[in-house]
Design brief:
mainly beta; 48% strand
């Protein structure tokens, strides 16, 4: 009967501990939406924690909703925010669940103001019932700012 010899790993193959860890915490951002609604506007606000300095991000948040006649409170909808932030622009897809707007995501495109701590732009959403309505959809304003 033959035996198999297994070599021991050398010290050079061991994982070495990181000597200096440097964690850069991400800053919080706040997304504000203005949704036109006939006689009164609807406003939405959500806090994002995953917005990098540059690149893609995705997060599920609670979008707090209020109108001109009410104040922001605990009422809100689960919302997915997927986007890409660059130094001079931001593109977002905002998908609000549990609302009449749940069928189509909002396509937000904005540009940076001054020092890339605030982005402003507009959002569009295609018609929710094209077979019945035939409108061009709806649009509004948004801004994304660092807290």
């Amino acid at each position: 009967m033959s035996s198999i010899v297994i070599d021991k790993p050398t010290r050079s193959t061991w994982l070495k501990p990181v000597e200096q860890t440097r964690v850069t915490p991400r800053k919080k951002w706040e997304l504000h939406l203005v949704i036109p609604g006939g006689e009164r506007n609807v406003f939405g606000r959500a806090t994002l924690r995953t917005v990098p300095e540059s690149g893609l991000f995705s997060e599920r948040v609670k979008l707090i909703i209020w109108t001109q006649n009410t104040s922001p409170g605990d009422f809100g909808w689960q919302t997915d925010v997927d986007g890409m932030r660059l130094a001079d622009s931001v593109d977002l897809h905002v998908h609000i669940f549990g609302s009449p707007l749940r069928f189509n995501p909002m396509d937000c495109r904005g540009v940076a103001l001054t020092d890339q701590t605030r982005y402003e732009g507009s959002w569009t959403m295609p018609c929710m019932k094209p077979q019945d309505c035939g409108c061009e959809g709806v649009s509004g304003k948004f801004f994304l700012s660092e807290l």
